[in-house]
Amino acid sequence: MAAEIDRDKVRASFHRQATDYDRHAVVQGRVVDKLLGLLQAEQVAPASLLDIGAGTGRLLARLTELYPEMDAVGVDLAPGMCEAAAANLAGRRVRMVNADAESLPFDAESFDVVVSTSTYQWLATLDGAFAEARRVLRPGGVFCFALFGERTLFELRESYRAVLDGGADRTHSFFANDEVAAALERSGFEAPRVGSELEVEMHPDVPELLRSLKKIGAGSTAPASGKGLSERRLMLEMMASYRKRFGREDGVPATYEVVYGVARKGGGELGE
Fold first, then answer.
1. Is 177:149 a contact under the CB 8 Å cutoff?
2. pLDDT tens-digit profile of 112-128?
């Protein structure tokens, strides 16, 4: 289960990094490609679609090419992301809304399809957000999503814990596959399918990895770098541990476990 999360900090972090996000979010781009394949396999022809955590609009841009006649809405917690997406998607049938995944500002049964990528890992629990996704889906509608799972950035978290010496663990934790599946079932979705894949991203060194995480608004996944001497020493020891345990000739790896889920809302059929 994810640790307690400061949603205001998450919102501010992604707001600040909106303009730089796509340039650094390499794994997130691969996730978009995979999710599109999963959605197409469902053989849907949506008239209306909602993207939760739409970010800069990367997924919505691809979806509007696949389904040019649909009306799409994107929501994001960070105002900066909404602004970036609105600019990127200008001229398309897309509306951006600054909103929270756990409290969607839409009537029940408003959308044929709900999608989300790289968003739900920033929640403390999944039940509320999944219940909201189901609420706004029409009967027979499809929910297709991806989030980062429990093995994500394990190199960073293990290196930090190795040098803590009894101190507080400030790294972010992620949901396990079975937690995701259980939350879907509790939320009332039918026939949920959940699976995961590993993606590995290489970085020249640990400081570059930490800078990259900050550039995509995900600095909260890493331990906080305090101003005190003890905090700075801890960060230096963590980086040394990371290099020693996981370093390669071509740099240091950062592993992401991507959990993919597909489920339907009962009560109807949605297809071509």
1. yes
2. 999 999 899 989 999 99
How far apart CA 9 and CA 22 sit, in angstroms, is 20
3-state SS of the chain is CCCCCCHHHHHHHHHHCCCCHHHHCHHHHHHHHHHHHHHHHCCCCCCEEEEECCCCCHHHHHHHHHCCCCEEEEEECCHHHHHHHHHHCCCCCEEEEECECCECCCCCCCEEEEEEECCHHHCCCCHHHHHHHHHHEEEEEEEEEEEEECCCCHHHHHHHHHCCCCCCCCCCCCECHHHHHHHHHHCCCEEEEEEEEEEEEEECCHHHHHHHHHHCCCHHHCCCCCCCHHHHHHHHHHHHHHHHHHCECCEEEEEEEEEEEEEECCCCCCCC
Q: Over the stretch 145-200, which tens digit does the pLDDT of each residue have?
A: 999 999 999 999 999 999 987 666 777 789 999 999 999 999 999 999 999 999 99
Query: Residues with Cβ < 8 Å from 136, sequence gap 6 or more?
Result: 50, 104, 106, 107, 108, 109, 110, 111, 114
Whose tokens are 């996000």? That residue is 21
Q: What is the mean pLDDT of residues 202-215?
A: 88
Single pTM value for the model: 0.85
Instruction: Answer whether residue 211 shows pLDDT above 90.
Output: no
- Tokens 């609009």, residue located: 57
What per-residue confidence (pLDDT) applies to 226? Answer: 52
Give Cα 114 distance to the centre of its chain. Answer: 14
Q: Give the CB-side neighbour count of residue 240, counting CA atoms within 13 A.
A: 7
